[in-house]
Design the sequence.
């Protein structure tokens, strides 16, 4: 086992972790990736219930196979049980699963569901995505950045596109770690004010810069540009999509933008809508680290699970 083990009770939101905890998780993820055999019995005899209100490829596969690599058993609970809180209370769901499972992973629509599960479960809860946060993705992203840049504190990271759960987690984690972060969103697509203020306070405490702008021409010099889909899963209404695409068109991430910002890496959490938020040429280029990102979802999540079961 590695000396950098930390202890967690849950993994719910990026703003609940300190800089030292995040750095330890990043180091642990990289160590598990390099030495998986050292961790292949951490979850021996343990079962993890995986609640998925929303369909998934990377989250489902990375958790399922990652849990298996740690010696544990994963049980997938899909949409057949309906939305949390409708068929039965979230509290009852949490208490029932706690009778059988040793941990709960939940990919849900509402952060309130994550909070309810954590409040009423007697086992650890991991937020695999909600409407406000995507902490497993952000952790994997910073694992990826750590593998490509020797000093995270010197990295300049920009996110271009819709202010959503991915950008929320990225900006909070960047501010906590002391990474300069620029968020470029169309007018009216910014994160909610409370999250902006939280990020500003974290950045002030860490000494990093946090810039929010609607002007794509004000992106400045960056090392890394990150983007995500402009149209969220479940919101693909054709009557609305055309207006969204027109509004976001100036924010496409392409080789011209990379050159303008002098950026050397592009990231995307996938699935990508090619030729919308990112060009196919850039997505498939040597600047793209998107599949390294995808693999690191498993290692980052395994680091979280190891930390949860290190008590």
Sequence:
């Amino acid at each position: 086992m590695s000396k950098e083990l930390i202890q967690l009770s849950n993994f719910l939101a990026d703003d609940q972790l300190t800089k030292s905890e995040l750095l330890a998780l990043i180091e642990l993820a990289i160590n598990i990736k390099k030495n998986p055999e050292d961790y292949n019995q951490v979850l021996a005899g343990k079962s993890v219930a995986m609640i998925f209100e929303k369909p998934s490829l990377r989250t489902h596969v990375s958790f399922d196979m990652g849990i298996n690599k740690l010696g544990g058993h994963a049980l997938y609970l899909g949409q057949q049980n309906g939305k949390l809180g409708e068929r039965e209370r979230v509290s009852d769901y949490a208490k029932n699963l706690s009778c059988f499972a040793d941990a709960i992973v939940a990919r849900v629509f509402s952060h309130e569901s994550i909070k309810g599960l954590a409040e009423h479960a007697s086992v650890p809860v991991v937020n695999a995505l909600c409407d406000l946060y995507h902490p497993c993705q952000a952790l994997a992203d910073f694992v990826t950045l750590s593998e490509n840049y020797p000093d995270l504190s010197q990295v300049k990271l920009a996110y271009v596109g819709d202010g959503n759960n991915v950008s929320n987690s990225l900006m909070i984690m960047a501010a906590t770690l002391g990474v300069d972060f620029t968020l470029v969103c169309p007018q009216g697509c910014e994160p909610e004010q409370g999250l902006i203020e939280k990020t500003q306070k974290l950045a002030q405490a860490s000494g990093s810069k946090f810039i929010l702008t609607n002007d794509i021409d004000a992106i400045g010099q960056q090392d890394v540009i990150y983007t995500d889909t402009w149209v969220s899963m479940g919101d693909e209404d054709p009557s609305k999509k055309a207006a969204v695409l027109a509004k976001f068109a100036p924010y496409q991430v392409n080789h011209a933008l990379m050159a303008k910002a002098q950026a050397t890496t592009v990231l995307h959490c996938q699935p990508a809508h090619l030729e919308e938020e990112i060009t196919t040429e850039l997505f498939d280029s040597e600047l793209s680290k998107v599949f390294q990102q995808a693999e690191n979802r498993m290692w980052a999540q395994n680091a979280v699970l190891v930390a949860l079961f290190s008590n």
About this structure: The longest helix spans residues 290-308. DSSP finds eleven helices and nine strands in the chain. The two ends are 13 Å apart (CA to CA).
